[in-house]
């Protein structure tokens, strides 16, 4: 089946004073119809930047897409569209929800205003029809008494409610792709589960593909079919969710899995060190400074993105057969 | 909300009481008195005491205060010791001019400051932004009297233009009145604009950094909608605060500008009255100005809650 979104060789740079530094590199991924695709990684791994690049919402300058293609519905390269054409897609065929429901809604407008706004941008419905659509979508995201909620302001709602409203706004125009950037990070655990269930339900009802961006492997396990693990601006491993949890290849992925809270009683593992800053990016493999299995070659040359098993890509020298040739 | 406004109005009472006592005492403490300004230093003691008796200045000071206050509370601000004319009527007619000047200045200030502030924010750290910041710095730092005198000089010497003399009110001859007002309003307006411009710039920048702006863009909004429907409205509260204070201050009269353009406004009235030690006029005018200032502040506070639903008063 044709993918709904296909990212090819995406590269994002940041322009600092006179210098151009790379923040995201070699991003390749495909999201199928009705698929929930996860991107997991620490803060600073470039997962949010990747999602903003899809939306055309990178803060530019200083950020810019310097290379690559993002195909939406096969033919359209989002990076080549005019800002006007992109606006027609944004909030309509591709919509996005964000991490902080507390600050993601305009505090000076009612929920109704903020829902209606989307419809005004993308539809030619009458006011009455718009209102009906808003009531329907609010019910759909599981909020009782929609008429009353619509008259309220964001500060009168709880965090969970606001995130539901954000989802309602995102789903209003029946998008083909929903990008969820850490949708549950700011919520407490019970609300998290509800929101994730809601998203899965909406995926089934609206046939929407979801790009789930998170640092939480639990969220990935619960929702996604395919996962990309990002580290320091690169995808280091990409596979289906079962293989990722049971047969991880990349040392970083293994580290991440080890640092999950499990039922073991011993101290929680954590990967030593932190993500290198853009100025101090290693020349070879970007994970070399923290990798327990680092070799000489890792410091010098960046490994290729290889198919190490069926539908399983990994970017690590451990799996590179030609290793001998390089040395 | 209604209860809140009522409470704020009630709070006016202690404020005005404090101000009235303060201004009364200050007027008593400054050297010189109305009797010697009228009669001169050569006057006989007899003439002096007669005039003092006539003005009630021979009474103990607390009685003088009570007498004056009693009058004010019944709506009688007394008469000017120099002209014998009722004070309240005089204040109100001069306030008309001051109000017109203030509103005109504020209008000029906004149409300069808010668009320029937005442009500077959107083009921050470019030459446009730099230019706007220089203009705003000039607006804030060039003294009113200098700009006013320069304007008059340039207009008269280079363009042989003289604003009409002899004040007429807006209702008598609107065109002539506006011709007289436009220059002083421009001078005051540019001074106000400097501060408003800076506040607009920084406030818009602050709002544009917030998460909800990204949400609105993600909905597919054009930049025009992002800026005018959302960013400007959110940026309005600090701008309003500055504007409210500026208007409150201007409504108290602008002595220098009124002098330069010979406009009979409140400021001129108070200044003359102080020089002549015309106690009841000064006291009455100050009370009036204080009331207006407090009311403007109240109005701005009410406006806040209208703009921002998170601000409620109970």
- Predict the CATH topology of the largest domain in chain A: Rossmann fold
The global form of chain B is globular
Quickly count the domains of chain B.
Answer: 2
Assign the structural class of chain B, choosing from mainly alpha, mainly beta, alpha/beta, alpha+beta, or little secondary structure. Answer: mainly alpha
According to CATH, the homologous superfamily of the largest domain in chain A is P-loop containing nucleotide triphosphate hydrolases
Number of strands of chain B: 0
Q: Which regions of chain A have little confidence, pLDDT < 50, spanning 5+ residues? A: none
Helix content percent band of chain B: over 70%
CATH superfamily of the largest domain in chain B: MetI-like
Strand order of the largest sheet of chain A: 6-7-8-3-9-10-12-11
Instruction: Give the helix tally of chain A.
Output: 12
The most extensive interface between chains reads: A-B, 27 and 19 residues
* Biggest beta-sheet profile of chain B: none
CATH architecture of the largest domain in chain A: 3-Layer(aba) Sandwich
Category by helix and strand content of chain A:
alpha/beta
Rounded to the nearest angstrom, the distance between the terminal CA atoms of chain A is 41 Å
**How much strand of chain B?**
under 5%
CATH topology of the largest domain in chain B: MetI-like fold
The total count of helices of chain B amounts to 13
């Amino acid at each position: 089946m044709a993918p709904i979104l296909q990212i090819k060789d995406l590269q994002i740079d940041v322009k600092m004073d006179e210098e151009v530094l790379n923040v995201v590199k070699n991003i390749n991924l495909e999201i199928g119809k009705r698929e929930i695709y996860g991107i997991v990684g620490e803060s600073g791994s470039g997962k949010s930047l990747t999602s903003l690049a899809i939306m055309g919402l990178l803060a530019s300058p200083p950020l810019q897409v310097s290379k690559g293609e993002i195909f939406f519905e096969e033919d359209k390269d989002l990076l080549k569209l005019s800002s006007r054409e992109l606006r027609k897609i944004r909030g309509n065929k591709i919509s996005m929800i964000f991490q902080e429901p507390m600050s993601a809604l305009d505090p000076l407008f009612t929920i109704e205003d903020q829902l209606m706004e989307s419809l005004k941008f993308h539809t030619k419905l009458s006011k009455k029809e718009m209102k009906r659509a808003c009531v329907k979508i609010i019910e759909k995201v599981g909020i009782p008494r929609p008429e009353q909620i619509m008259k309220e302001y964001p500060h009168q709602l709880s965090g969970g409610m606001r995130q539901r409203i954000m989802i309602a706004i995102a789903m209003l125009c029946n998008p083909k792709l929903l990008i969820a950037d850490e949708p549950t990070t700011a919520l407490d655990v019970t609300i998290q589960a509800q929101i994730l269930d809601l998203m899965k339900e909406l995926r089934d009802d609206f046939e929407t593909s979801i790009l789930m961006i998170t640092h939480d492997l639990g969220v990935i396990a619960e929702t996604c079919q395919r996962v990309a693990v990002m580290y320091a601006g690169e995808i280091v491993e990409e596979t289906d969710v079962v293989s990722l949890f049971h047969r991880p290849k990349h040392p970083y992925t293994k580290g991440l899995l080890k640092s999950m809270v499990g039922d073991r009683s011993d101290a929680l593992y954590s990967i030593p060190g932190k993500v290198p800053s853009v100025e101090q990016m290693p020349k070879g493999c970007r994970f070399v400074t923290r990798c327990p299995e680092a070799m000489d070659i890792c410091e010098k040359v960046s490994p290729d993105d290889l198919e190490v098993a069926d539908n399983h890509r990994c970017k690590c020298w451990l799996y590179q057969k030609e290793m001998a040739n390089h040395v | 909300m209604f209860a809140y406004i009522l409470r704020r109005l009630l709070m006016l009472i202690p404020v005005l009481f404090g101000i009235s006592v303060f201004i009364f005492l200050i007027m008593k403490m400054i050297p010189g008195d109305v009797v010697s300004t009228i009669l001169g230093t050569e006057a006989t003691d007899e003439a002096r005491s007669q005039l003092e008796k006539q003005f009630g200045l021979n009474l103990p000071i607390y009685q003088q205060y009570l007498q004056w206050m009693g009058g004010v509370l019944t709506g009688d601000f007394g008469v000017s010791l120099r002209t014998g004319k009722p004070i309240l009527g005089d204040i109100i007619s001069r306030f008309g001019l001051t109000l017109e000047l203030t509103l005109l200045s504020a209008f000029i200030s906004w149409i300069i400051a808010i668009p320029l502030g937005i442009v500077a924010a959107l083009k921050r750290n470019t030459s446009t932004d730099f230019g706007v910041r220089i203009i705003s710095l000039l607006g804030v730092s060039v003294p009113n009297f200098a700009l006013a005198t320069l304007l008059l000089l340039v207009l008269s010497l280079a363009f042989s233009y003289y604003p009409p003399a002899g004040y007429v009110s807006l209702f008598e001859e609107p065109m002539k009145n506006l011709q007289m007002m436009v220059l002083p309003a421009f001078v005051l307006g540019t001074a106000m604009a400097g501060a408003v411009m800076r506040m607009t710039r920084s406030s818009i920048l602050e709002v544009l950094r917030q998460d909800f702006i990204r949400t609105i863009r993600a909905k597919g909004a054009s930049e025009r909608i992002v800026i005018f429907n959302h960013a400007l409205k959110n940026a309005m509260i600090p701008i309003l605060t500055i504007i409210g204070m500026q208007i409150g201050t201007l409504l108290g009269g602008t002595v220098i500008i009124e002098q330069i353009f010979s406009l009979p406004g409140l400021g001129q009235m108070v200044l003359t009255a102080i020089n002549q030690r015309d106690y009841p006029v000064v006291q009455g005018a100050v009370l009036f100005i204080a009331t207006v200032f407090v009311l403007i502040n109240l109005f701005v506070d009410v406006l806040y809650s209208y703009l921002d639903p998170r601000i409620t008063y109970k």
